[in-house]
Amino acid sequence: MQEAVLVYDTQCPFCDQYCRLLRLRDSVGEIRLVDARQASDIMEEITRAGLDIDQGMVLKLDDRLYYGDDAIHALALMSSRSGMFNRLNYWIFRSPRRARWLYPVLRYCRNRLLRLMGRTKVNNLARPDNTHF
Predict the structure, then answer these.
(1) Which residues pair with 73 in a beta bridge?
(2) In the chain, where are the structural domains located?
(3) Which Pfam families match (predicted)?
């Protein structure tokens, strides 16, 4: 079994629900869900890699980081096909092209929702004037 870590913004209701509905344990084993807003070794690694967590979730399998559309594509391939959500997720995101096309749409919806909720960005790359959606 691979070590699997999924890093995302738990303050986003869409992201949180998506990550909790995925059924990965059968194919991957334990998956550790990490809140991107909390300081951690994995967030330091993501920041060193120059990945903006406000623009995409990160899946770490062993020593490889999958970011954004690559992460959602990998998750779809690894998730079980049990349950309507997981079957639909697999059908939509099993195609890298579809994941690459749809991920920005999902990110846009996420950013709009977080803006309406008054949330701030994680801003793990510490970019100036990048604190609000």
Answers:
(1) none
(2) 4-116
(3) DCC1-like (PF04134)
